[in-house]
Amino acid sequence: MTTKVQEILDLQDKNALAGTIANLYTDWDQKRMEKVEEWKELRNYIYATDTRTTTNAKLPWKNSTTIPKICQINDNLLANYNSALFSNDNWLRWEAEDYESADKEKAEVIEDYVKTKARESNLEREVEKLLYDYVQYGNAFAEVIYVNDINDQEDETIVRYRGAKLRRISPYDMVFNPVANDFKETPKIARYVKSIGELENDIQERPDLEYDIKAINKLKSYRETIGAYRMEDVHKAEGFMLDGFGNYADYIQSGYVEVLEFDGSLHDLQTGEFLKDYIVTVLDRKWILRKVKNPSWLRGNKAHVAWRERPDNLYGMGPLDNLVGMQYRIDHLENLKADALDLTIHPPIKRVGEVEDFVWRPGEQIEIPDSDGDVVPMPPNAAAFQVNNEIAYLEAMMESMAGAPREAMGIRSPGEKTAFEIQQLQNAAGRIFQDKIRRFEKFLEDLLNTFLEVSRRNFDGKEAIRGIDQAYGAQRFQDVTKEDITAKGKLRPIGSRHFAQQAQFLQNVQGVFNSPIGQMIQPHIQTAKLANLVSDFLGWDKYGIIGSNAGIAEQADQATLIDELQGQVDMQKLTPNPLEE
User: Fold this and answer.
1) Is residue 71 part of a domain?
2) Does the chain have fewer CB atoms within 10 Å around its N or its C terminus?
3) How many domains is the chain built from?
4) pLDDT of 371-390, one tens digit each?
5) Helical (H) or strand (E) element with 34
6) Kind and range of the H or E run holding 445
7) Residue 328 domain-assigned (yes or no)
8) CB distance 131 to 421 below 8 Å
9) pTM for the whole thing?
C-alpha cells in the first residue's frame, strides 16, 4: 500500500458507531435486492409505452405493442382510494380518552388546527404520493417533521409555513430488519441525499434536529483535502460504492452528501453504551452528525403500511405484484396476433423449382422458366386470431384480483336488479377494496397523531386557525395556544368509513321505510332523532340545516308573514285614493 493511500485512510478516521450503522444499512439493503428488482420490473410495466423496456422484449415477435392494463388498474385503484380517503370535508375526527378532553369546543379546536396545518402544508398531495407507493410497491413509508420556513426581508420576517409536515420516504431509501415483528419496534435506517448547503440550512431553520456543526466542518475539510490526491489513490483507499453516484471519486466531486438516519436501539461498540430508542445521523458513512434520545412520545416519527402483509416479513406485497405475469401473457398474445395478421397480409413465400428473383408486392410479375417451378404463399395459423377472448378474460381476472370492483368504473354486472340489490352487490364486491383502504387509513391515523404530537412539542406562542361556525355555517378564525391543542385522545381519519357507511346507511333506510316493516314501525319512530342521524351522515350538521321542529317554526313564520302582508293589502283596498276622488 502506498503512503498516499495510508494517508487517506488515516484522514478518514471513521467513527465506530458510524461504521456499524453503515454496515447495517448495507446488510439490510443487500437482503432486499430481489424485492427491489421486482419493484423495478413492475415499474417498467406500469410506465411502458411498448414492450421494448419490459421483460417481453426477449420474445421474437416483430410487433412490440403493450396493452396498458396494469397501468389502468393502477390508476383505477389510486383514484378510488384517494376519493374514499377525502370523500368530504369531514374526513377527520377527534376521539377523547378522558372527560376533560371530550369537551366539544376543545375537540373542534384540535380538528380545525390539524385541518388548517394539513391544508397549509399540502398534506393531501403528500398522501397521494404515499398512495402511489401503496399501490405500486405494496409498501408506503412516511415521517413527520417540524418545519420553520421563513423568509427574512430587510424590514420584516415572512413566515411561509411553521408547523408539522408529512414527508414521504421512498421505499428505495428505507431499510430495516425484515423479520421483525413490528415496524415501530424494529431499528430502521432512512437514507437521504442532500447538498452541503441544505445541511447548513437545516442547522439554521431546524434547531430541533440538534445537528453537530463540527461534523459538517469536518466533512468540508475532508473533501477539500481529498481533492489534492489522485483519484487512483482514492479508489484504492475506498472499497465501496455509494448508491446512485458510481465510484467514490464521482461521489466526492458531486457536491452531495449521503445522510443515513438510524432510528431505534443500538449498542455503541466504541463506548460500550446501549443506546435505547435513539436517533443517530451519519454523514458519508463516517461521521456522526447527531446522536440524541428520540424526543417523540409516540415511539418515533416514522410509519409503514403494507398492502398485503406477509406472516414473517415486514415487506408486503402490492396489488399489482402477482399481475405482472398476466400482463406479460396479454402482451404476448396481442403481439402474436399482430404478427399473424402481418403474415396474412405479407406472408412468407415458398419457392418450388427454378424461379427468377422477384419482389413480393402488388402487380409484380414473376417469371418461372421451369415448368415445374411455382411460388406459394405460406398461410398463417388461424388459431392465432382467436386470442381476443383470452385477452378479455385475463383483463377481467386482473381487475378482480387487484381488488378493484368493476362497479367502481361504472360497469354493471348483467341482469335486472332493484336499487337495494345493486347496493348489496356493490358492498360485497368492494370488500377487498374497503379492507385495503382502511388499512391505509390506520397508517394515516398513526401519522396524523404524530403530526399533532410534533406540533404540540414544538408549539410556540399563538397561531391563527380557520374553522366553520356551527351556528351560521360561515368561516371563522381564532388564535390557539399550545394548551388549546393539548388533550388526551386520538385523531382518526374517517373518510373511507364515512364514504362506505353513508352509502350503505341511506340505502338501508330507504329499503326499510319503503317496505311494509316501515309502515308497521312508523308510530314508534322519533323523527327528530332520525333527522339528526341523517344530518350527521350527510355532513349537514355544520350548516345548521337540521333543527328541532325547525320546519314547523319556519312554516309558522311564513304563515304569519303572509297574513301580515295580506292585511296590508286589504287595508290598502279599504283606504280611499284621494286622486280617484
Assistant:
1) yes
2) C
3) 1
4) 677 777 777 666 666 777 77
5) helix 33-46
6) helix 431-458
7) no
8) no
9) 0.76
